[in-house]
Specification:
Helix content: 25-40%
Strand content: 5-15%
Distance between the termini: 23 Å
Shape: globular
Number of strands: 2
Strand order of the largest sheet: 1-2
Radius of gyration: 12 Å
Number of domains: 1
Number of helices: 2
Largest sheet: 2 strands, antiparallel
Length: 66
């Protein structure tokens, strides 16, 4: 899984309640997408399902060149 906040279709409104913001802070648009290994994605899923962190709110879309 690659987390690319620049291509997220709900970036902005959903950022405050997204695990990326909780764990890594507000994304900087100049940063590269963050690769997330399958075991890490599953661990975040377990934490979110337990209510310890918010879920990943990423809704992927096409990344715009810029």
């Amino acid at each position: 899984m690659v987390i690319d906040c620049d291509s997220c279709q709900v970036a902005g409104p959903a950022c405050d309640d997204c695990v990326v913001t909780v764990l890594l802070g507000t994304p900087d648009p100049r940063q590269s997408p963050v690769p997330l290994a399958g075991d890490h994605a599953r661990a975040i899923g377990v934490l979110a399902d337990s209510g310890l962190v918010p879920p990943l709110r990423l809704v992927p879309g096409e990344r715009q060149a810029g």
